[in-house]
Task: inverse folding
């Protein structure tokens, strides 16, 4: 199973924000794991002490 286009774009935006120290309001966090849940189709990202879920619509939430 692969992420759809919206999820791939959401993953790109999230990774950019997590790893870019210059982005205002976000603190640098190393990305440790990216995995797609085959049951739900959501993409999970583990970054530092936070985890994020990217929905099929491309939106993400901690």
Result:
């Amino acid at each position: 199973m692969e992420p759809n286009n919206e999820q791939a774009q959401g993953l790109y935006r999230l990774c950019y924000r997590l790893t870019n120290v210059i982005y205002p309001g976000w603190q640098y966090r190393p990305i440790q794991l990216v995995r797609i849940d085959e049951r739900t189709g959501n993409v999970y990202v583990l970054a530092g002490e936070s985890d994020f879920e990217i929905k099929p619509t491309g939106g993400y939430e901690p």
User: Anything to note?
Assistant: The helical segments are 5-19. The chain has one domain: 5-61. The mean pLDDT is 90.
